[in-house]
Amino acid sequence: MRPTPLRVGLAVTAASAVTFALATPIHAAPSQDALIAEVYGGGGNSGATLTRDFVELANAGATPVAVDGWSVQYLPASASASSQWQVTPLTGAIAAGGRFLVAQAKGTGGTVELPAPDVTGTIAMGGSGGTIALVTETSALTCKTAADCAADPRVRDLVGYGSSTVVRETTPTANPGNATSAARPALTDTDDNSADFAIGAPTPVNSHGQGPGNPDPDPEPEPGDKRVRDIQGTTRISPLLGQKVSGVPGVVTATRATGDRGFWIQDTAPDNDPRTSEGVFVYTAALAPTVEPGDEVLVSGTVAEYRPGGDAASNANQTLTEITGATVTVKSKGNALPTPEALTPPAGYLPTANGGSIESLPLDPATYGQDYYESREGMYVQVADARVVGPTNSFGETWITTNPTQNPTARGGTIYLGYDQPNSGRIKVKPGAAAPQVSNVGDVWRGATVGNVEYTNFGGYTLATKAVGEHVPGGITPEVTDAQRSYELSVATYNVENLAATNDQAKFDRLAAAVVGNLKNPDVVVLEEIQDNNGATDDGTVAADATFAKFTDAIVAAGGPRYQWRQIDPVNKADGGEPGGNIRVAFLFNPARVSFVDRAGGDATTPVSVVKQHGRAALSVSPGRVAPADPAWNSSRKPLAGEFKFRGRTVFVVANHFNSKGGDQAMHGRYQEPVRSSEVQRAKQAALLRGFVDQVKAVDKGANVVLAGDINDYQFSPAVGTLTGNGDVVALMDTLPATERYSYVFEGNSQTLDHILISANITRYRYDVVHVNAEFADQASDHDPQVVKLRPSTGNAHVDQLVFVLEDIVEHLPRH
């Protein structure tokens, strides 16, 4: 029998640590703790009731005595020179005041079994006499006389039973028989066997206090009828949800002592069904787990499904299957962990349920990547040479890909090019027992990154790391665009992420350095997420002059031009964003290169219109807001139109920041296909903005129009499709190679939310997304800026061709 299991109460009763005290060996001196309490050699003999011989040990002391590496040894009564000590090794401990039963050989007679022994040996002891020694080693004794054995320091206690026994302490006991044993009733040791032991009916007792024929008050647990695979089942929801399970076997693969405390177990005897996970999380609530990796355990508790974010029907998150309210029996320690499985999800992503829940659908891990991860939920897995596709965030989380060949970008990310291409190889990594080094897109964790799969909020399937490969930088650096030529008007867009005068100077300096050094001082900068002067403080402040002043001063300090700004203060708390921040869009422009046409009258509620002046389009107010009272702009930023002059030509620039994707169902959620409810408002916003472009074009078909900003939608989205219309507006993101169409990285997908669109009559342009933020763990903003260097049209294609030729000639004239 294995040693007494250590019982650990989790979320039910706190565990108390067992401390083993190893008493100091004595030399031929009475033992004060570990003793031989009873010996019986008649088991299974004629006239015996018990079927086995036994030796019962006891502890007369006040602290446990560990007997790992000790032994019980037997020498026949009439020992001769050729006689050998027979050895039964011991494991475990004798509790203070407790008993410890060592079963020996079984005979053919008797009718009563011993109580469950603590250790089982095979020695056939003599019924009428012999010597039993308790020895602090497992090597066989060599002494054959009482004196020699008394002098051996390994002998902790010794009893010679039967009057003819040679090796004994002082005088042997009286003769026992097949129906009687020699027992020490008082647990005293005087080093005289005849005084310490009495002959009587055998009374074996084990460490649980159980005697023959009595039920075990604390039986050793045995595995129940449910295994991990039965809990996980073949769908996303456990078939045993809400039921109690007992004795679920497994080996602890990892623990978590903070946050959602608990540990993972894995069945080491898996089935052949690829749909059923062999791992599960055991949630211990407020208690830190007291088990360790390598512990062989039996877990009892209630099967639950934890849905991050709550169980409301509106919460699209999937669930994590777990065992709660658990009690755990540790059967053994130091076991080898199962070999971590390499993650190899297929190219597919998720099945569809026509907008409904997929949770009852049978898993198909060979077809769908998310089904594959679900079928490995809780399991011990690994990724070799993991490539980072989403930089480490402030929570220490990083996105990697398990499929390095799946839609790679030139800089090491994974490009997102359509709702039907969500990239199944992506998985979030969060710190577990090992914390990954802060990483940028394109970095590689060389070697094995090992951990357990779970489902979490904000990202879905996650790898909680136990070991991380060696960090190897991918070498990406912030990009730098080339400067505009003298005849090119450069227009940039930059979401500066809640910039307020209250931000540290360092943020302003970094943003300014990007404008000057990376964007090369664009002539016009469309800004999104400029906040009022006191940022998130909600006191009615809407003015942002201090924010603009601090930003433009930082640009000058970085070596850039003295930009001017144009903007309109919003109605307090009417434009969404961070509460109290009053974010808005705005223009910066370099008056040395481009002029702004100011027309008074623009305010938060007055709409801009298009008027005809001298046969050409003009704005009624400049700057002016596009349809600010329309419900499409409720709790959202209103587009800001501005009229610019460059080299005698008019350019209309509209700054935009459409409503966010907040409220959309998660790509990785239970509802498939996910509802993208935010698209409804953006569709209305796009229609209004497109209508404004149509107004301009109705007055002046050859007008130069630039739409720039954070559209909060993809280049393949319906909103962008509305803006491009019949092809008379060009989405510049679509002009890039497919692998370069991104300005933002979300959940490991390189994607675009930011756009510059131009009227199709602008045929000469150079466009660049300048990657300075989104791929890096250290960011000044979560968006990358982009810039177009364009040659505005005169409104007449033939004149354009002549003007452009002349500009080219002038540009290349020698400078004196």
What does this structure look like?
This protein has 816 residues and is mainly β. 11% of the residues lie in helices and 30% in strands. Strands 30, 33, 34, 35, 36, 37 and 40 form a 7-stranded mixed beta sheet that branches. β19 (341-342), α4 (369-374) and β20 (380-390) form a beta-alpha-beta unit. The model is unreliable at 1-27 (pLDDT under 50).
Low-confidence region ranges? 1-27
Question: What's the shape?
Answer: elongated
Strand content: 25-35%
Number of strands: 42
Distance between the termini: 100 Å
> How many alpha or pi helices?
9
What does the largest sheet look like? 7 strands, mixed
Regarding quaternary structure, what we see is: single chain
Kindly state the percentage of residues in helix.
10-25%
Class based on secondary structure composition and strand pairing: mainly beta
On the 0 to 100 scale, the average pLDDT is 93
Radius of gyration: 40 Å
How do the strands and helices of this protein lay out in sequence?
Elements: E1 6-9, E2 34-40, E3 52-59, E4 65-66, E5 71-76, E6 86-89, E7 93-94, E8 99-106, E9 119-120, E10 130-135, H1 146-151, E11 155-161, E12 181-183, H2 193-196, E13 198-200, H3 228-232, E14 244-256, E15 261-266, E16 279-285, E17 296-306, E18 320-332, E19 341-342, H4 369-374, E20 380-390, E21 398-401, E22 426-430, E23 444-456, E24 460-467, E25 470-472, E26 489-499, H5 505-518, E27 524-530, H6 545-557, E28 564-566, E29 584-589, E30 595-597, E31 610-613, E32 616-619, E33 624-625, E34 640-646, E35 649-657, H7 678-699, E36 704-710, H8 718-724, E37 729-731, E38 744-746, E39 749-751, E40 754-759, E41 765-769, E42 786-790, H9 797-811
Parallel strand pairs: 8-9, 16-18, 19-20, 22-24, 26-27, 35-36
Antiparallel strand pairs: 1-18, 2-3, 2-12, 3-8, 4-7, 5-6, 5-10, 10-11, 12-13, 14-15, 14-17, 15-16, 17-18, 20-21, 20-23, 21-22, 23-24, 23-25, 26-42, 27-29, 28-29, 30-34, 31-32, 33-34, 34-35, 36-40, 37-40, 38-39, 41-42
Helix pairs in contact: 5-6, 7-8
